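Narrative of activities, Objective 1.

The group set out to show that a structural description can be obtained from nothing but a protein's sequence at a throughput compatible with the screening campaign. Below is one input-output pair from the validation batch, recorded exactly as produced.
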Amino acid sequence: MTTITQTFSRDHARCDQLFAQAEESVAKSQWERATTDVNTFITGMERHFSIEEDILFPAFRKRTGHNGGPTRMMQMEHQQMRQVFAEMQEYLTQQDREQYLGLSETLLMLMRQHNAKEEQMLYPMTDKMLQEDTAPIIEKMAGDQ
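Output recorded for this entry:
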């Protein structure tokens, strides 16, 4: 059986690939392609965040009875990344390669730290706590792709 950790970690890798593609397009000043790539990346990240925030985190909170803790921290980090997305899109619109790439470095560090916390701590906890809910969560994630 596929686990939440496996499924969400694969999606992290997919988002990382989209990020790298967008960064490459901006680095080459291929602005039309960069706009498409950045939008695809942000859409992928928002999809990932939404599934966590709307499905996974509430199920985990309900099962554990805790409304704070790791899921609150992850949501705060999602919000931080969303703010960086907005700034990156501004610089993309302005075709400001240097400012965009500077922010993308910041975002890369945020994503790496965030993903490590989820993959090493939160997802394994959800695998244990949500065993009987794993299949519906994964089905929902697959259906939203």
